Amino acid sequence: MTKPFSQACENNRDPILNVIQNYFDKASKILEVGSGTGQHAVHFAKHLPHLTWHTSDQRSYHEGIQQWLAESNLSNLVAPIELDVTKQWPETKFDGIFSANTSHIMHWRMVEDFFAGVGEHLDINGYFCLYGPFNFCGEFTSESNQAFDEHLKSRDPEMGLRDYVDLEALARQADLMFVEKHDMPANNFILVWQKAISTNIQFE
């Protein structure tokens, strides 16, 4: 198998790193949901040597991720976990979770399970950084994002750009407190949430 390569990953890896390093500076164990080619994992692990970067994706992506990990020879990279957000997550917690370009290719039901899983597996005070194109209050932020959304829906009507308002509703259900929005190149964003102490307390 030829080692997979994404030009987009090469283009956005440094702008993403410049943001997430501020949230993961004291973290020790990061889960990347949807590692794709593995390029982000290698780049981030190389520049954040104080933490261990756990890759994950569906089984079909593992061989390509393994090629990138093996070539990097980095000791703080962990072989990919088989992860389908709608099913079993790893039986451990992480003090940081990162994901790039995933929510718009998931069906909405998967996005719901994704946020619930993050809420369950992120340690208190840990950060969740989600990168990608998003809408805000029902509006596209650029014509290119609108065209991209139309392209996604032509492939699968249940895919498409997600609105921050809807994601924030899921985050609150998962005890994730919104921290900040970062504008990124190419009409993308990083949305950051922090795991809060549960407010879903029931009194008898």
TrEMBL record:
InterPro entries: DUF938 (IPR010342), SAM-dependent_MTases_sf (IPR029063). It holds the Pfam family DUF938. It comes from Pleionea litopenaei. Gene3D superfamilies: Vaccinia Virus protein VP39 (3.40.50.150). SUPFAM superfamilies: S-adenosyl-L-methionine-dependent methyltransferases (SSF53335). This is DUF938 domain-containing protein.
